Amino acid sequence: MALKNDHFTYRVTWSEDDKEYVGLCTEFPGLSWLDHSPESALKGIRDTVADVINDMKKNSEPIPEPVASRQYTGKFIVRVTPDVHKKLAIEAAESGVSLNRIVSAKLSR
What ranges in the chain are assigned the alpha helix state H? Predict the structure, then answer.
């Protein structure tokens, strides 16, 4: 399956240090593009990603999978202190729901 650079996750934000907009791509954290307008910054980072992908293809390097295309199970492990675990377990018991439901609700806020 061929990847298109427009399937990647792009973001434009203001850089106070540079006094310009900076275009970023989540899948390529080492790349950025500074420009005078948000539209130009987005175009710049998209063009840069396209150039990098072309180089990676020429060198038979693996291209990152777009975040939007990845499959997620909905499961991950979070380590907390025993005190936090106890507080959450008490809160779940007092609410009459599972520990998982309490944690999920807090994370989704």
Answer: 38-58, 82-95, 99-107
pTM (two decimals) = 0.71
DSSP secondary structure string, 5-29? GGGS-EEEEEETTTTEEEEEETT-T
Q: What is the DSSP letter of 1?
A: -
- Starting at the edge strand found earlier in the chain, the sheet holding 10-15 runs 10-15, 20-25, 32-35
CA 12 to CA 21: how far, in whole Å?
A: 7
- Segment 10-45, tens digit of pLDDT: 999 999 999 999 999 999 999 999 999 999 999 999
Q: Where are the domains of the chain?
A: 5-68, 72-107
Cα–Cα dist 35/19, whole Å: 9
